[in-house]
Write a structure and sequence with these properties.
By secondary structure, this protein is α/β, with parallel strands linked by helices. The protein has 3 domains: 88 residues, Orthogonal Bundle (Arc Repressor Mutant, subunit A), CATH 1.10.10.10; 120 residues, Alpha-Beta Complex (Aspartate Aminotransferase, domain 1); 212 residues, 3-Layer(aba) Sandwich (Aspartate Aminotransferase, domain 2), CATH 3.40.640.10. An 8-stranded mixed sheet has the order 4-11-10-9-8-5-6-7, with helices on both faces. A 3-stranded antiparallel sheet has the order 12-15-14. Strands 1-2 form a two-stranded antiparallel ribbon.
């Protein structure tokens, strides 16, 4: 009996918070009201929502309308079904190890899911026939990096390096590097906004992330100088197609960042070139100025296939040798068969043409959306890569507006440290057709205001 009274009181409080924000008695209006209550903190994660029929009765709406609103909220990631507890406010987990899951969590029901950050599978090069691969290596003593691949990468690298390694994807490489360089209580400078898994990784290591602001050319040199006052051990940067904003360094920006880091020779710079060969921006590396401080990570996932899981890493021997020695106690090396497959993809004329076509197509898709948004009065800086950083009036309201049109996007709060203007990360690289229509929905969602709270 007491539990029933308690649940009833909780339901009344939830309804009161929603009612105070409800200005439009439609499914979308109700969804926005709940979204505003969640965004304001009035309905914290785990808050249980009353049954549909009670909500309908209390708010004088039909159960069908309430059910439709709940569906919009599920699709936008605002609420979830939690077994016997019923429908509850979902945890954004934006301030802890769940940033990665919050940003990239797969959701169903979207006609066009632009929340993922993944490449378009139709733009990936075709894999060579199995007959094109060599026999499987039979020795544990072969070189960890396929010599032919090492030679090819050396010729194409942005600077002369001391040591080269291959890992199972960019985050695997960054994990190994960060675990080697950083200790509990250390600080590391990161771009703000930046890629959520990096923040998850630093938190798991007990490392404090120090935010440095960005603009259309990437990390701002003065922001880096300010962050270096905290005496960090490392700084993590993306030289081009910054995920989520699409910013890329100009030659002068790279030189300016290098000049700032030269004042702190003990700080290692870890560059993550995650877009790699599908970036249309030229690559500028700090390694050209500071090879003894720079670890450069080049991913091939977006250009040649996420399941290829390969990234090449260059750096000083003093940094990479201990990592590679430690790796011998576990996995040992990255599959030489996969390395040979990458070598084929990097040299096969058809594959080279496919990657170049994908790079041009991603740039075309992004330009069409940027131009259409600009015509609609939503200014976004020109960028590069698969993602666009869309400024919005309110993240929850924008997500719900997009969900009502079958479009998914990622909430910007998972990509940022501290307060800032609300944004959505939109994977525009997946928009193959209908650019004007999608841009119109994005522009409309960007303008949806936060509902005013009346008490």
């Amino acid at each position: 009996m007491r539990r029933s009274i308690h649940v009833s009181r909780l339901g009344s409080r939830v309804l009161s918070e929603v009612r105070s924000r409800l200005t439009d008695v439609t499914a979308r209006g109700l969804a926005e009201a709940v979204g505003r209550a969640v965004g304001d903190g009035a309905l914290p994660p785990g808050s249980r929502l009353p049954p549909v029929r009670r909500v309908a009765a209390e708010l004088q709406m039909s159960p069908t309308t309430v059910s439709a609103a709940w569906q919009l909220l599920r699709r936008s990631g605002t609420i979830q079904t939690d077994g016997r507890r019923g429908t509850v406010v979902a945890s954004s987990r934006a301030d802890g190890p769940g940033r990665y899951r919050a940003a990239l969590r797969r959701r169903s029901g979207f006609t066009l899911d632009l929340s993922t950050g993944v490449p378009d599978p139709r733009l990936l090069p075709a894999l060579p026939a199995p007959t094109g691969l060599p026999a499987a290596p039979t020795s544990y003593l072969d070189e960890p990096v396929l010599p032919e691949l090492a030679a090819l990468l050396s010729d194409r690298w942005p600077y002369a390096f001391e040591r080269l390694a291959v890992f199972d994807g960019a985050m695997d490489a960054i994990d190994h590097v960060a675990s080697s360089l950083l200790r509990l209580g250390d600080r590391a400078v990161v771009e703000n906004p930046c890629f959520p898994p990096l923040l998850d990784l630093l938190e798991s290591l007990g490392v404090q992330a120090v935010a440095a602001g960005t603009d259309e050319h990437g990390m701002i040199p003065d922001a880096l100088r300010t962050a270096l006052a905290s005496r960090p051990t490392a700084v993590f940067l993306q030289p081009r197609a910054l995920n989520p904003t699409g910013a890329s360094w100009s030659p002068s920006r790279a030189a300016s960042l290098a000049a700032v880091l030269a004042e702190a020779p003990h700080v290692r710079a870890v560059e993550d070139d995650s877009a790699g060969d599908v970036s249309s921006a030229p690559l500028h590396s700090l390694g050209s100025y500071l090879p003894r401080q720079t670890i450069h990570v080049r991913s091939f996932s977006k250009s040649h296939g996420p399941d290829l899981r390969l990234a090449a890493v260059s750096g000083p021997a003093a940094v990479l040798d201990p990592i590679l020695e430690r790796r011998l106690l576990g996995q040992g090396w990255t599959s030489r068969l996969l390395q040979h497959l990458l070598l084929i993809l990097l040299t096969d004329p058809a594959s080279v043409t496919a990657v170049a076509s994908a790079r041009d197509e991603y740039a075309r898709r992004r330009h069409l959306i940027e131009a259409a948004l600009g015509d609609a009065g939503v200014a976004v800086p020109a960028g590069d890569g698969l993602n666009l950083w869309l400024p919005v009036a309110d993240e929850q309201a924008a997500l719900i507006a997009l969900a009502s049109n079958g479009i998914g996007a990622a909430a910007g709060r998972a990509f940022t440290i501290g307060p800032g203007r609300p944004h959505l990360r939109v994977t525009v690289g997946l928009i193959a057709t209908g650019h004007a229509t999608v841009a119109a929905h994005l522009a409309a969602a960007a303008r949806v205001p936060a509902l005013s709270v009346t008490r």
